[in-house]
Amino acid sequence: MGETGRDRRMKKLRRCLLFIACWILPVFFSAGCSTQKQPADETEAGRNLVVGFSQLGSESAWRLGNTASMEQAAKEHGISLMMENGMQKQEKQINAIRSFIAYQVDVIVFAPIVEDGWANVLQEARDAKIPVIMMDRVINTADSDLYDAYIGPDHYMEGVNAAKFLLKKAEEMPQETIHIVELSGTDGSSPMLRRFRGFHDLIDGDERFEVLATVSGDFLRSKGRKCMENLLARYGDEIDVLYSHNDAMTLGAIEAMEEQGIRPGEDIVIITVDGEQAAVDLLKEGKINCVVECSPKLGEAVMDLAEKMVNGEEYPRNTHPEESVFTEYDDLSNLGPRGY
Ligand code: AHR
Quick one: which of 43, 50, 69, 328 has the fewest CB in 10 Å? Predict the structure, then answer.
């Protein structure tokens, strides 16, 4: 049965009360259930649309670029964005999603910090008939109806592309056995699991390669540096290649190398994922050999999809942005500013 005028008035009233409880009272009592809200512009497409967005954290320039892309696109679409930062805690993200359900937002968007542990809260969203878009990362579930659509990169292909570069580079490397160290991302997260799998599916079993160690730097620059210091202390100049799951950790690792007089990009071949400006600049300087692009600019596609869902239009279940691989073999002179 469709919504009646009374249902709509009740929904408005409930939202109003929740708005006061979640957004106005905390200002007085300085304990909020939210971090940000933008006023909606009155556009044709986005009128009255409220999107609840659970971002997972602020761990990298990539993540900040992703948040900025969501905010910008919401503004352009006249969509009211309720954003919560999960600060790398799944529990905080689950609480945020629950608050969006209580508020009866039109669409929930979330970037899941890890793959497991979402079934209950997503079932609650389904019971409340609120469509859910997974953004950037994916979850591990046998019940594909727990979410409605995914917009984000193909993290497995990023791992494959990193390995493809190494297979090419290996042709010109003199070592009989090429020793690799791997800095992986947050344990249990989809980019960590899939970048690992994609890379290893191509190189494991190839006798030219030996992975000395895979250690988690949690996608953080500070941990990337620390992990690299430990790896250098343990393996010294045995290390021929660094495969790092993101640019932030790579930047930290490069600091650790340079501190010890190691020339990144020459003494150690470096393959990284993301495509932040800082990493692309180092690629141009010869300190990084390959950057596998992972685009954070997902906001426009997300807002477009949210509108389609609410308007009852057809939409794709999976959307992957177009992504490139930038390497030392390419002419990068025409590559524009990255924007993140
Ligand atoms: O989920 C995407 C990954 O998360 C990016 O590669 C990384 O920089 C971010 O922290």
Answer: 43
181 vs 9, 165, 236, CA distance in Å?
59, 15, 11
Please enumerate, as own/partner, the contacts of 16-24 that have beta carbons within 8 Å and a separation of 24 or more.
18/102, 18/103, 18/104, 19/103, 22/99, 22/103
Residues 10-33 have pLDDT tens digits of 555 566 555 555 454 443 433 333
Q: Is the CB of 135 under 6 A from ligand 1?
A: no
Q: Which CATH superfamily is domain 155-294 in?
A: Response regulator (3.40.50.2300)
Closest C-alpha residue for ligand 1 atom 6: 246
Any ligand 1 atom below 6 A from CB of 103 = no
The CA 184 to ligand 1 mean position distance, Å, reads 11
Q: Is 50-152+297-322's fold the same as 155-294's?
A: yes
Q: Is the CB of 294 under 6 A from ligand 1?
A: yes
Q: 50-152+297-322 belongs to which CATH class?
A: alpha beta
Distance 291 CA to ligand 1 centre (A): 14
Residue 178's DSSP bridge partners are 209
Ligand 1: distance of its center to the CA of 99 in Å? 25
Q: Which atom of ligand 1 sits closest to the CA of residue 111? A: 1
| pLDDT of the residue at 9 | 54
pLDDT in tens, 180-229: 999 999 999 999 999 999 999 999 999 999 999 999 999 999 999 999 99
Q: How far is the CA of 296 from the centre of ligand 1 (A)?
A: 8
Range list of β-strands (E), 92-232: 107-110, 132-135, 149-151, 178-184, 209-216
> What confidence category does residue 236 fall into, taking pLDDT thresholds of 50, 70 and 90?
very high
* Radius of gyration of the chain from its Cα atoms, rounded to whole angstroms: 22
The domains of the chain are located at 50-152+297-322, 155-294
What is the per-residue pLDDT for 48? 80
Query: Is the minimum distance from the CB of 279 to ligand 1 under 6 angstroms?
Result: no
